[in-house]
Amino acid sequence: MRGEIAQTHFDFDGDGRDTDLDGVIDSNLPEESGRAHAALVVYTPWHDKQVGGKPLALNLGMENRQIGTYFRSPANPVGVADRDLWRAFTNLNWSGLDLQLSSARETDNVDDVPLLPQTETRQHYIAASYTPTLELKLAADGQTPLLPWFGQPSFSASRLNMQQDVTKPASVLAEGTLREASTTTLGASFMYTSWYWAVNQSISDTEERAAFAPDTHAYVTQLSASFRIGSKLTLTPTLQRSDVEERDPPVESTDRDVRTTTAGAAVDYLLSETVTTGASYMYNRQHGGSESADATTNDVSARISWAAFPPSETRPGITLSLEGSYHEQTDGLTTFGDDPAYQVFMKAAIGWSPRF
């Protein structure tokens, strides 16, 4: 069982705004308070079950997460507010085969703001992965296993179905189905002694029932790898290409398909047993026909962490970290948002895993 609770107070317009540009503040919204909580319960009916001489593991779980309409934390700027999620799930593992099933219901407008609509999203997810057991031979030292030329393979497949309905209408949204979407993903990875590589392919279809946006069909191909160089350095490059096709553009002869290429790499280095550091760079190029997209972004991040007091069974541990990021975007269609952005955080984390 696990539980979390948080509350924030956020002033969205600071000291106010001069809406008519006469030099006088004429709009100052009050500070808003937001609450969030999360609860998770997982039940394992047995711990020593065997089928065919191999262990069988089964988990059953229920989860609830709620983030208020006005919840906003500067320490987590990408957190999505205004969500209330209920999810039931199960996981089964046997002889290298892992199966996952989940069903979720999520609503927005958590605080029942009168002027806002409310939507309900239902998601059904199924995933399977298989890692075959290999008959390995030992090297001359008698300890290092000799992998075949293709390494240790692992294969995966998943399917996600989603339907979003408007349950409380508003001025711009009528009651009824808003959109339907599905995503199918296939993947494979191959592990070696000091490195691995993986490939994933996903196909998505989205049908917009409210006609606010076009129906789309998307392909995403991703290649990734990781290399351990020595005992302290790890290099992780990635490459991704996505193509989003509009199935019903406003003008049939208009090419509004968007193609995106993303490439990057991350480096992690172990300075000592208690100090780790890392950096990453990500390049993103998005372009499309008929001036639908033309943007380039560059993101750089770096961090250093120090386990000042490692945890033990009798006392908690404290980890201090310094993190920074730089974001730069150039848009060929507009100059809005082209200014670079910086963020620097100093964090302290307290962790403890006591035994009783």
List keywords for this structure.
356 residues; two-stranded antiparallel sheet; globular; 19 strands; 17-stranded antiparallel β-sheet
Layout of helices and strands:
Blueprint: E1 2-10, E2 32-43, E3 50-51, E4 54-67, E5 83-94, E6 97-107, E7 118-130, E8 137-138, E9 145-146, E10 152-168, E11 176-191, E12 195-208, E13 216-229, E14 233-246, E15 258-270, E16 275-288, E17 294-309, E18 317-331, E19 341-351
Antiparallel strand pairs: 1-2, 2-4, 3-4, 4-5, 5-6, 6-7, 7-10, 8-9, 10-11, 11-12, 12-13, 13-14, 14-15, 15-16, 16-17, 17-18, 18-19
User: Helices and strands, in N-to-C order?
Assistant: EEEEEEEEEEEEEEEEEEE
Question: How many angstroms separate the termini?
Answer: 16 Å
Helical fraction equals: under 10%
Task: Estimate the strand proportion.
Answer: over 45%
